[in-house]
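ok so I'm stuck.
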Amino acid sequence: MVGVCKMWRPMLFSFPFLYAKQLSTVRGFSVQVPVKPSAMSAKTVWKKTGELQHTISSVIIKAGKGLHSGDEAVVRVLPAMAGEGRYFIINRHDVRVPASVKNVTDTTLSVRIGRGESSVATVEHLLSALEGMGIDNCRIEVEGGNEVPLLDGSSKEWVEAIEEAGPCIARDNFGNDMEKMALVLCEPIHVLKDESFIAAFPAPSTRLSYGIDFPQAAAIGCQWFSWCPVDSMAYKQNIAPSRTFCIYEQFPYVKPMLSGFLIHADSTITDSWIHKGWISGQCLSL
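replied:
not stuck anymore, here's the structure
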């Protein structure tokens, strides 16, 4: 398995069983700690699932500002052939950046992947939606910036766009379909980082359990959530609408990133927000 915490949604990659807990940290955000590929290969194996790979039937176009950069960017998600996987093309550079844990370069408040001089940040919501909706192959073009737009702070808008585009069976150059492969755990694995941890165990079916504890934010507090990814509808209803947030103590650090964002009229940051101790992605709008 791969170390995954709050900012990496559990559906980025599929595992038989995932158990994670996020305790409060100095910065309030959890940190993803990549596991070395060599360690992964020793404890995992790729197996056929009996299902066919999918792509999208038409192009998806979304535009907006990046949370951390404030830059405007346009994202185009295009169909791809079976076996190509999900990969990024950033600002028309002739470099493919596969959506792989091997290409993770930074996890400070978001996830950045890159190869060479090409990189793109805040990919977690889009990749979560693609995995959750069963899209195995697609070309993702990002133009105008190096960050995927925040949109509403969740994966919901990406899910809706994928549904509108429509999934279809992916085929290779010769018109042949291809079976989907899944990474299966052979033995337990865990990753520790400060007060956060994640552990995964071999199991006959996938079940995700996740816990957070933010005592400085009473509105969030300590929460646990367990979920089985039965189908894309279960993902759409239970995972996709989850928004990112930050605790109030982080606001001076995050505030410079929010230049150009507006505050919803019904979600103004006032003393009541300060007392609650947290700021939701819902209060951010373009």
